[in-house]
Automatic annotation (TrEMBL):
PANTHER family in the cross-refs: HTH-TYPE TRANSCRIPTIONAL REGULATOR YBHD, NITROGEN ASSIMILATION TRANSCRIPTIONAL ACTIVATOR-RELATED
Matching InterPro entries: HTH-type_LysR_regulators (IPR050950), LysR_HTH_N (IPR000847), LysR_subst-bd (IPR005119), WH-like_DNA-bd_sf (IPR036388), WH_DNA-bd_sf (IPR036390)
UniProt KW Transcription regulation keyword: yes
Pfam annotation, one family: LysR_substrate
Entry keyword Transcription regulation: yes
Organism: Bordetella genomosp. 12
Top-level taxonomic group: Bacteria
Keywords: DNA-binding, Transcription, Transcription regulation
Similarity annotation: Belongs to the LysR transcriptional regulatory family.
GO cellular component: cytosol
Domain HTH lysR-type: start-end pairs: 1-60
Protein name: HTH lysR-type domain-containing protein
Gene Ontology molecular functions: DNA binding; DNA-binding transcription factor activity
Amino acid sequence: MNFSRNDIAAFLEVVRAGSVSRAADNIGVTQPSVSKALRRLEDEAGVTLLERGVHGAKLTNEGQLFHETARRYEAQHHELVRTATELRARHSGLLRIGITSPGESVVVHSMSELVRRRPGVRLQLRIGKSDELNAAVEDGLLDLAVAPTYPGQHWSCTQLTLAEEDSRLVARVHHPLAQKANLQLCDLAPYAWVMASQHSAARQLLNGIFQSHNEPVPRVALEVDYMSEASLGLLASTDLLALVRSPLLRGWLGRVVPLPLAQLHIKRSLVLLTRPEAEWSHLMVEFRGVLLAAMAPPHR
């Protein structure tokens, strides 16, 4: 048997409305169209489903059994449509992400994984300073942001710690300080630095360390928004110094080297920033899961 869903829908509406004419008005078709739908359904079923007369339409005994099954069929169809709509919505949509550096390879790889899982998704990526990203998330201009946070730093957004990492004092392999035994903060004074902007948390933390040891704050030769491959290339070919996070440093060992100075071995956290009490979309939840999985330590 090959029942038409439109014919079943017309039959159900006739039962609800109590007559063919009212059913036709309700679904916006002509009365003959509804009558033809009922005849096709009865021909396919091989039984009379409705007794039609001047006082309306009434289910036959066979029609009552058919009606119960038809209602379940219609409900299942609506559930199927609803589920498909939700699935389509989950595989599409817009996610606005902020990061502090294009060198955040784990974040970029997580974005790639999200696109692979949801081919219809649209991503907007914004690169900015940590405080700018925090403000953009709080103002609703970004859905979430991944940013570093240092000890004592406070955010107005909600934080979820993704990973812990450290930054080290770095110089070129043959830098004069690389050969010096028992290195001290005062030994750094003759050398200029590659450093973050003046109001960044990293710069303020570094200046505070020097000031707490009664040393002059570092002299900045190059101010950057973030440490990049270009910045490391400059370090490798000059006597400049910089704080470099360990994940970025790995690809440059042999050209640059971390210097053994405990005061400048700085721990920081990488956090996911979201607006306080924000409604988490399916995309936000899935991206958070991808990030956490990517940043989880490997099993031994």
